[in-house]
Amino acid sequence: MGGGHECPMELWAILPELVVAGFGLVLVPVAGWARGRVRLIPIWASIVGLVIAMGLTVRMLPWEPMAVFCETYAVDGFGTVFKLILEAGALVTLLICLGYFKNHPLIAHAPLAVMFSTLGCMGLASCLDLGLIVLFLQMLSLASYLLVGLVRDDPLSNEATLKYFIYAAAALAIMAYGLTFLYGLTGSLNLNRIGALLNTGDAGVWIALAMGLILVGYAFEMTVAPFHFWAPDVYQGTTAPMAGFLSAVPKVAAFAGLLRLFLSIFPEGLPGWPTGIAIIAAATMILGNLAALRQKRLKRLLAYSSIAQAGYILMAVAVSAYTGGALDAVGFYLAVYLFMNLGAFTVAAQLERTVGTDSLSALQGVGRISPWPSAVLTLCLLSLAGVPPLSGFAGKILLLTAAMDGGLVWLAVVGVINMTVAIYYYVAVIAQLYMRPLSPEAVPVQTGLYYHVSIGICLAGSVVFGVFPGWLLALTRFLPKMVH
User: Fold this and answer.
1) Domain ranges, ordered by start, for the chain
2) Most buried among 6, 75, 219, 223, using CB within 10 Å?
3) From CA 53, how far away is CA 192, in angstroms rounded?
4) pTM of the model
5) How far apart are alpha carbons 481 and 265 in whole angstroms?
């Protein structure tokens, strides 16, 4: 780092990341030799590590924004709130894995990849350096490849891993090329310095090109059109708990990383940004919802649903530099989206483990013999649809309000139309549960303690924050506290 100045090791500022990394590293050799009941050690230790990390993260909420490690890493309200959301998502995923991989050798290996992927996500939400952005995206992606290919003897899983690897490698390479433009224009790797230098120069075309290339990498992780094609096949090919994790945690990190980069470099906004992002948001909503209407499998339906949900969130991202409530809206919706989507994928995991498929026909009449899982799936889907008084409704109101306050009334109208269309395919799943005759081959969906705990947490997040949105908004109020 320039000038020959000594860079202090401010480890106190990254204690949550050190805890996650430490538990992950220590458990690597343990997972290799664990047999029998000892296989549970890695997953329980990972759960303990995440709880400790969450406690340390909460402690950092009131801290004043500061840049540490030679101004390459931010400790501020923005990063802290997103880290809490990411840690919560990883914790719920591990609880789902406890039920899904019960008595399976993979129960020792899954938590390691979850921990390292979560570490990459946490770093992405806080880094202020172009080199670190690439590093943490690679860490996130490499661990995600392992999660997708966890079941090595499954041809669908192997195919999904290959597709994910090829798409991710191409997207990240294009993004890295865009980052080099920023360095070439300014001679700096620091986001805030890049912003200060770009604001004093005249390189509009090159800035637009750089941001367009960089957006490719983030759009891939966010499953934003036209970089969404990998998601349905990957979610279908991997196990339901891992599909739920990929649909939520890396997506949250990508939105956090994009907002961090954009608001650090262009705190006053960038000409053309709202219109460009608004067009991408509209295309993402429309493509995701239209494709979801034709799906016959629950995981593929949820994959296209998650694509549409990314479009809704982009409505507020488009005006994030211009509207005061946009960051609150993004943070609130990403938090409740995580609970809604993981809740739906938890039931998909139960169904997959019980009957060996996630086909919607397997849900026929299941509401009569498995009332608890069916009720949870119903409420999570209704929350994703934005039905009041559930959490998704409150989140969608915030997103639409942010778009209208930012002058994108037409985008809010497109959003409302798409939200209305989405109700159809969510209700179609609910109709399978309760309004179709019970199939003779139907069996009750398997449940257990860990399933009850995980879907109970997801159900609480899908309902409580809709009835009492102020509880979550009190947390998102820390988001504007960013290092500048």
Assistant:
1) 272-484
2) 223
3) 28
4) 0.93
5) 15
- Is the alpha carbon torsion for 90, 94, 95, 101 positive or negative? positive
CA max distance for the chain:
75
Pull the structure tokens for residue 281: 């948001």
**Mean pLDDT on 90-111:** 83
Q: Are 382 and 389 in contact (CB under 8 A)?
A: no
> How do strand 66-68 and strand 73-75 relate by DSSP bridges?
antiparallel
Beta bridge partners, 190, equal 129
pLDDT digits 0-9 by tens, 367-403? 888 888 888 999 999 999 999 999 999 999 999 999 9
Three-state DSSP at 187 gives coil
Tell me phi and psi for residue 375, to 5 degrees: -65, -40
With contact defined as beta carbons under 8 Å apart, do 39 and 105 qualify?
A: yes
- pLDDT tens, residue by residue, 293-335: 988 888 899 999 999 999 999 999 999 888 888 999 999 999 9
Of residues 204 and 202, more confidence is placed in: 204
Residue 265 in contact with residue 201, Cβ under 8 Å?
A: no
Q: Please name which of 233, 244, 238 lies closest in space to residue 295, comparing C-alpha atoms.
A: 233
Token look-up 């952005």 returns 133
Query: Which amino acid is located at 362 in the chain?
Result: A
- Going by C-alpha positions, the residue among 305, 295, 294, 297 that lies closest to residue 355 is 297
Phi, psi of 369 (to 5 degrees): -110, -15
Instruction: Give the lowest-confidence range in 101-110, 158-167, 428-437, 455-464.
Output: 101-110
Looking at residue 190, the DSSP 8-state letter turns out to be B
Unique residue bearing structure tokens 């946490």? 122
Please state, as a whole number, how many other Cβ atoms lie within 10 Å of the Cβ of residue 405: 18
d(CA 205, CA 196): 17
Mention every residue, 6+ apart, whose C-beta is less than 8 A from residue 208.
272
Q: Do residues 361 and 436 touch, judged by C-beta distance below 8 A?
A: no
Token digits of residue 364: 């026929």
Structure tokens at 198: 């770009």
Q: Is the pLDDT at 459 greater than 60, yes or no?
A: yes
